[in-house]
Structures are given as C-alpha cells and as structure tokens.
Design brief:
The chain is built from eleven helices and eleven strands. It has 385 residues and is α+β, with helices and mostly antiparallel strands. Residues 118-385 form the Protein kinase domain.
Length: 385
C-alpha cells in the first residue's frame, strides 16, 4: 500500500468528509446560532439555518488549515478537503431551501455483500439502464466508507451490467498505468426480484464534467490550459481501451469525471461498451441518440469505430471550454491552433476525423509545448475559497 506523506489527523478529517452521503453527516442534523438574549439556540428560519451552516463551514475550514499540519502533501489534502466541504455546503443550502435539511437520513434499503452490510441512503440518478444510489458501509451500527451502487432498472437490463463487469475486468487485468482511468473494482449482488447490482467505492473527490460546467466558478467554461490536461488524460485512457478492442460508445458529460488533486480523469458507465469491436456491434444502444455528443454513426446504426469515441471527446472538450458542442463554436479566447486541433475530432465523417487516440495524444503534447513551453502542473479547483 502506498504511503502518503500526510499527517494522520488530516487524513482522518479528509476521510470523514469524503465519507459523507449527506451534508448533515458533516455539519450536523441540527444547526445552531448565537442569540444575544438566550445564548446558543436551534436555528428556526431558513435564513438562520443558512447563517448557522456558514458558521459550521468556517469551523471545518479551520480544522483543515494546511498551516497546522506537517507532511509533504498536507496542503494538497487540505485543499481537497475544503473543496469537498464546499460541495456539501452547497447541497446543504439546497436542502435548507427545500425544507429537507435535518430530516431522517436512515434507510431500510440494505444489502449484504461479502460480510459487509451496506445501507443505500440516497438515490442519485437514473442511467439509461440502471438506478444509482449512494450508500454507506455499516460498521457496528455506524456509517463508514461511502459506496455507490448501480442496480439494473429492470431484470432485462442485467445484460448491460454483466457487460460492464466484463469490460472493466478486461481493462484492468494487465494492471497498466491507464487502469486509473477506469472505475475501481466492483462487487455484485442480486435483488430479490432478480435485478443485478454493482457496488464500488465512491470517490467524493471526483467531479463530472457536467458538474464542472454547471458550477458557479466555471459556468462560462474553463481556460484552455486546463482543458488540455483533461484531453491528455482522456486520450490516454480511451487509447488503452481501444488497444483492447473496446469502444465506450456512451461518452457524455455525466460519464466523464475528473479529480483536481492529481489531474486524473475517469470514464464511467461502461455498460453499453462494445467488446471485440473489430467483429462485434455490441448490445442495443439505449439512450437519446440525438444528443449532440454522439456521432452520426450511432444515430444511423452504422459500424461504431474508435473515432466514434474521439468524436464524443472532442465535443466534450468544446463543451467544457464554454463553447457550443452543437455547432462546434468555441470562445474567441481559445487559441486558433487549439480550436483547429479539436475540430479534427468532430468531423461528421468517421473516416476523416482523428481515429488513433495514442497518436493524437502525442500530437497534443507537441502542440501544448509549442504553444506554452514545458508542461507544468496547474492547480484546478471547483470553488473559490
């Protein structure tokens, strides 16, 4: 196991924040304010609750102050913990506004896997084939590590989850460096009605491209120097998948997540991927084929190629830059050479657009160094402190 040069107390704070399913898990179910006449009392109005939540956020930020910790990477983990706190804080504000803050957070939805009892506490979303929940491993009746569970929305969709299991096993079996671009190992279970489920560790320090673009800080798009590290990681990860004759086929802003701390990027939801793509057409595609992130061959039923994934990646980069992925227009602030580079991804003809992810990866590195010199790690954050 890799040893991290971070003070144990900070790692424990980081773990507690990362394990939260609801903001109440960190900030508390009851919020208090200081009353000049009565001392501390429970906040009663939504305005008081927001004020109290802000106060608790400040207290947690003080606990995460990097200046009070030793260790080479303490500043990195402090920053990450604070960013996760802001995400929980924003969700807490939303729960206050809907009147849900402080409500009962327990759930009767429990599963047992390999001796672990897991409580699925929070519905997250529906994919085209499954329902997704956030949950906690129960340890002596208390909430422990956070997990994510993906359950087939109907028994007929088990084949899609079975496909995802096969894909992830193939992509991870050689333990190449690119394995970091795929979801972690998962465990399976069956519901009483026969639906298949997958459980894997939930990484609270990752953000989907949709979440990045919807954030207040990046609603107008990210700078091109940040886009290129995301593209760099995307080409590396999808390039290895293509080398194993596997095409994702379903890349969109929800299915690509990034981690600011180390500039990692992960592709999720491989249930509609095509294995042995040189001879296989895969399972029937389920979803809105008219979404502009998807190439024309997906809509017409023509053969899917590696360039189909690269088309989607090009669209995603235009989107995250604050451009229009439907028309391929990009902000004027984006260097023309970067714009031309991305336009080669999104050509309508699958035969004319870029098709070799690893070759394109090398070309990207050359372009970045031509534009800005030797590459440097640029700090990326989701929220302003």
């Amino acid at each position: 196991m890799e040893m991290i040069d971070v003070e144990p107390k900070l790692l424990e704070i980081h773990r507690l924040i990362a394990s939260a399913v609801f903001p109440e898990d960190v900030f508390g179910k009851k919020l208090f304010i200081n009353d000049d006449d009565d001392g501390e009392r429970v906040a009663e109005t939504s305005a008081e609750e927001k004020e109290a939540l802000s106060r608790v956020l400040k207290e947690w930020k003080r606990k995460c102050d990097p200046s009070i910790f030793s260790g080479k990477y303490s500043d990195v983990y402090s920053e990450e913990a604070i960013q996760m706190l802001y995400r929980l804080f924003n969700e807490g504000i939303e729960r206050i506004e809907t009147g849900d803050y402080g409500s009962d957070l327990s759930s009767d939805f429990r599963i047992n896997i390999g001796g672990d009892e897991i409580e699925l506490r929070k519905y997250l979303l529906d994919t085209e084939t499954a329902e997704v929940y956030a949950g906690s491993i129960l340890i002596n009746g208390k909430y422990g590590k956070k997990v994510i569970a993906k359950i087939a929305s109907k028994k007929e969709n088990n084949r899609y989850l079975e496909n995802e299991i096969r894909v992830l096993r193939i992509l991870s079996e050689e333990q190449k460096s690119q394995v970091k671009h795929y979801p972690p190992e998962n465990k399976t279970f069956k519901m009483s009605d026969g639906r298949l489920g997958l459980v894997m560790e939930y990484h609270a320090d990752f953000y989907s491209l949709e979440e990045v673009k919807d954030s207040e800080k990046w609603k107008n798009g990210i700078p091109e120097k940040h886009m290129v590290w995301m593209l760099n990681r995307a080409l590396s990860g999808i390039g290895y998948a293509h080398s194993r004759n596997t095409i994702h086929r379903n890349l969109n802003p929800q299915n690509v997540i990034i981690r600011p701390r180390d500039h990692n990027l992960v592709f999720t939801n491989w249930d509609q991927a095509i294995l042995n793509a040189h001879v296989n057409s895969g399972l029937e595609f389920v979803g809105d084929k008219d979404e502009y992130f998807y190439p024309s061959e997906l809509k017409t039923g023509d053969k899917i190629l590696p360039s189909s994934d690269l088309f989607a990646i090009g669209k995603l980069m235009i989107y995250i830059l604050g451009g229009n992925p439907e028309t391929n227009e990009m902000p004027d602030s984006v260097d023309p050479r970067i714009q031309n580079f991305l336009k080669a991804f999104v050509m309508e003809s699958k035969w004319q657009r870029v098709s070799d992810a690893w070759k394109t990866h090398g070309e990207l590195i050359e372009l970045v160094e031509d534009l800005w010199g030797k590459r440097k790690f640029l700090k990326f954050s989701m929220y302003n402190k």
